[in-house]
Write a structure and sequence with these properties.
Radius of gyration: 34 Å
Distance between the termini: 33 Å
Oligomer: single chain
Number of domains: 3
Subcellular location: Cell membrane
Membrane topology: Multi-pass membrane protein
Protein name: ABC transporter permease
InterPro entries: ABC3_permease_C, MacB_PCD, Macrolide_Exporter_MacB
Organism: Mucilaginibacter pedocola
């Protein structure tokens, strides 16, 4: 009997080729989208899963006077970890991690720059489960001047030579010799901690590190099993009161995140330098929801087309019931057909996934693959999911078709489609409501990203090249600058400690306005050379730029308008101009020489913070900014590279256009935009497939009516309008439902941006028009085909 069911199912699929193809393609696309998103979600969930349980990261909330708002940071103080272990039995162990990027390592005559080296406590391997290939990794983090390197670093430095016991050098502010004691496996890509070498934090210990108040490393704790993290967080205020001097505890809060939540749950935490490929959990959940919607739309297509074509199976049901078949048997048969169709769709879905994964990996910068053999449970889960999709898609059509009464069916008195048109209409409206909602969301997301990238940030971003400096190359900055300015390809050169578009550091400062008491506060700082504002074309609101010579008043400071307003909030009636010449700064107080207009030195996600700019070249710079002549990028880069090699022959030349850096700032937003856009496109595609199938069925069922109308003089245009009007009404109803939902969702989403676009009616009208055009194009083929058919043949057909 089962064999017979398969034969009937296959014959039915082959007989109704159009609806079968629509169903298989729709289900395949929906399944492929779900599988890809499932793989992405699984990859995101796998971050740091290979480490043990009960590991947390310490984070701070800083709320200094003068700051517009408190900020969460991933950094912590060096003395915190041992104090926590001493004070709380919940803390079993800890490790602290300090990073150095673009770290120089030399072996004999071979010199390389590795992306990141970590200095760690000797307990590092008590917390983290990174693999050691050979040697003694524990010695590397216990003994000063020892190092464990990764396999990739070992190959770069030593090739096929055994690195254990070899001496390598680091040339920075001081020359340091390291003995290689171990080779480690490369850090997995799903690890928030990425490194090329490990060495002992104890080897760099200095007295200033023991001071409370300096935040410059990451702290990880291993808690006793069963620790209530909420209750433990609640004990931190008392801990800070005990250890921080004076009333400084008021400016800090401490909270902990489980290690497994750090990767996806810390998008609101700044200075998070050790969080590889950080991605917002909310975006991952959004992808999953949209992928499920796409799959549901495909399932709805199947129900629509199956119930619409119920008349084609009515006589079959009547005959089978008359010779003894019962309703459960028939329902099982129809469900089996649906599951068979789902399994066929799964084959095509797997092909689509294999074709699409390289693009997804390129877009997401992940290394996702189909784990057919690496994860034994993958195939059974996918098969169970496919059967579930077949069951959900087919349960209603199966129950509906198996309910026909054989006497009425065989007498031809049953109207198999009666009262089912309403349900089909509701399902079509539901499909297009989802699709229109996603279209509107995609348009607004794209417009917001375009707005952020094109909005004037208040400084020149075009034709700006940035070059990183370290301690050695930084000492030759002035020479490098003068050499560059000798060429007409270069329009300006400046330097700073931080790069625009990156998170700038905060610092405490003092301010004294005329005879008022001195005020202590904190603000974002930018340390620059004298030409910075001129090269970046940052406009002044009051006062003047930095002096070209040493000021007689000490250090010179320029504050932005937001900072100026903060300084004057206790001095009613005072103007910004009155700040010029007032005492301001850290260490020995300097003076405010000017007020710059506000500029967006950070992402458009954030409002402009209070900022002060100081020209302090003796503290060194970490970034050179070179403004090059428009239209001569290639020649200018070659000249800059040659000049760098001349001034810094032992350092590799690295550069980045500032526009590219800001594109990286908005990388996660762009990824979300493209993925949502792709899923929206798939939703529209599947909805249109269903609409095409229903239009085909409608035209087929009204073929005689169309013939009569044509005989009576109806034109092709009249027939097309007749067949299209009903479906267009459904699409318009879907728009009316989707609009308020999209308006609410977009309002909620745009609140995450300090600078954002307005929600305008034009976008909704545009999407409505586009959806109607897409629907018309979808159904026009069948409508025109029916309209131009020979009425004689139509009327002769029985």
């Amino acid at each position: 009997m089962i064999k017979n069911y398969f034969k009937i199912a296959w014959r039915n699929l082959w007989k109704n080729k159009v609806s079968s193809v629509i169903n298989i393609v729709g289900l395949a696309v929906g399944m492929a989208a779900c599988i890809v998103i499932l793989l992405f979600v699984s990859y995101e969930k796998s971050f740091d899963s290979f480490h043990g349980e009960d590991i947390v990261r310490l984070n701070e909330v800083q709320k200094f006077p003068g700051m517009a708002a408190s900020q969460k940071v991933a950094l912590s103080m060096y003395p915190m970890a041992p104090a926590l272990k001493a004070d709380f039995p919940e803390v079993k162990d800890y490790t602290r991690v300090k990073w150095d990027d673009k770290y120089q390592l030399t072996y004999n005559e071979k010199r390389i720059f590795v992306p990141q080296v970590l200095a760690v406590d000797s307990s590092f391997f008590n917390i983290f489960n990174f693999k050691v290939v050979k040697g003694d990794a524990l010695a590397a983090i216990q003994k000063p001047n020892s190092v464990a390197i990764t396999e990739e670093t070992a190959e770069k430095l030593f090739g096929k030579e055994d690195p254990i016991g070899k001496i390598i050098n680091h040339y920075g502010g001081d020359t340091v010799k390291f003995t290689v004691t171990a080779v480690m496996a490369n850090a997995p890509k799903n690890s928030q901690l990425q490194f090329d070498a490990l060495y002992s934090l104890a080897g760099i210990h200095q007295k200033w590190m023991d001071n409370w108040g300096g935040n410059w490393l990451n702290t990880y704790l291993k808690l006793t099993p069963g620790t209530n993290l909420k209750a433990f967080n609640g004990k931190m205020e008392g801990f800070l009161k005990k250890h921080l001097p004076r009333d400084n505890w008021k400016y800090y809060e401490v909270f902990y995140l489980p290690l497994k939540d750090v990767h996806a749950g810390s998008t609101d935490i700044g200075l998070d330098y050790l969080n590889f490929q950080k991605f917002d959990q909310k975006s991952t959940n959004l992808f999953a929801i949209i992928a499920i919607i796409v799959l549901v739309i495909a399932c709805v297509n199947f129900m629509n087309l199956s119930t619409a074509r119920s008349a084609d199976r009515a006589k079959e049901v009547g005959i089978r019931k008359s010779i003894g078949a019962n309703r459960p048997q028939l329902a099982l048969q129809f469900l089996g057909e649906t599951i068979l169709l789902s399994l066929l769709a799964l084959v095509f879905a797997i092909v689509l996934v294999e074709v699409g994964l390289p693009y997804v990996n390129n877009l997401s910068l992940r290394d996702i693959s189909l784990p057919v053999f690496s994860k034994p449970l993958f195939l059974p889960l996918i098969l169970l999911g496919t059967i579930a999709v077949g069951f959900v898609s087919g349960i209603y059509p199966a129950l509906f078709l198996s309910s026909f009464q054989p006497v009425k069916v065989l007498k031809g008195s049953i109207e198999t489609g009666k009262n089912k048109g309403t349900l089909r209409n509701v399902l079509v409206v539901g499909q297009f409501t989802s699709a229109v909602f996603l279209m509107i969301a995609t348009v607004f997301v794209v417009k917001q990203l375009d707005f952020m990238q094109k909005k004037d940030p208040g400084f020149t971003r075009e034709q700006m090249v940035t070059i990183p400096l370290d301690r050695i190359s930084g000492q030759k900055y002035q020479l490098f600058k003068q050499q560059l300015l000798n060429n007409t390809l270069v329009a300006g050169v400046t330097a700073s400690q931080d790069q625009l578009g990156s998170h700038l550091d905060q610092s405490g400062v003092n301010f004294k306005y005329k005879d008022s008491p001195e005020r202590n506060m904190a603000a974002t700082q930018l340390i620059v050379d004298n030409d910075y504002l001129k090269v970046y074309n940052i406009k002044m609101s009051e006062g003047k730029n930095f002096s070209t010579e040493k000021s007689q008043n000490g250090r010179e400071y320029i504050v932005n308008e937001a900072m100026a307003d903060e300084l004057l909030k206790d001095h009613k009636g005072a103007t910004r101009a009155s700040l010029i010449g007032q005492r301001f700064g850290y260490d020995s107080l300097g003076v405010i020489t000017g007020i710059s207009k506000n500029f967006n030195f950070n992402s458009m996600h954030y409002k402009v913070e209070n900022l002060f700019i100081v020209n302090q070249s003796e503290w060194g710079f970490r970034t050179v900014s070179v403004k090059i002549k428009a239209g001569s990028s290639k020649e200018a880069i070659e000249f800059i590279k040659a000049t760098w090699k001349q001034v810094n022959p032992d350092h590799p030349f690295e550069y980045e256009f500032l526009d590219d850096h800001f594109a990286e700032v908005y990388r996660a937003d762009n990824q979300v935009s493209k993925i949502v856009g792709i899923l929206a496109g798939l939703a529209i595609l599947i909805s249109c497939l269903g609409l095409f199938g229903l239009a085909s069925f409608s035209a087929e069922k009204r073929i005689k009516e169309i013939g009569v109308r044509k005989v009576l003089g109806a034109s092709v245009q009249n027939i097309v309008v007749l067949l299209s009007t009903h479906f267009i009404k459904l699409v318009l109803i879907a728009n009316l439902i989707a609009w308020p939902l999209a308006w609410y969702a977009m309002n909620l989403w745009l609140k995450d941006f300090a600078f954002h676009i307005d929600i305008t009616l034009g976008t909704f009208i545009f999407v409505a028009a586009l959806s109607v055009i897409i629907a018309l194009l979808t159904i026009s083929f069948q409508s025109v085909k029916a309209a131009i058919a020979n009425p004689v043949k139509s009327l002769k057909t029985e």
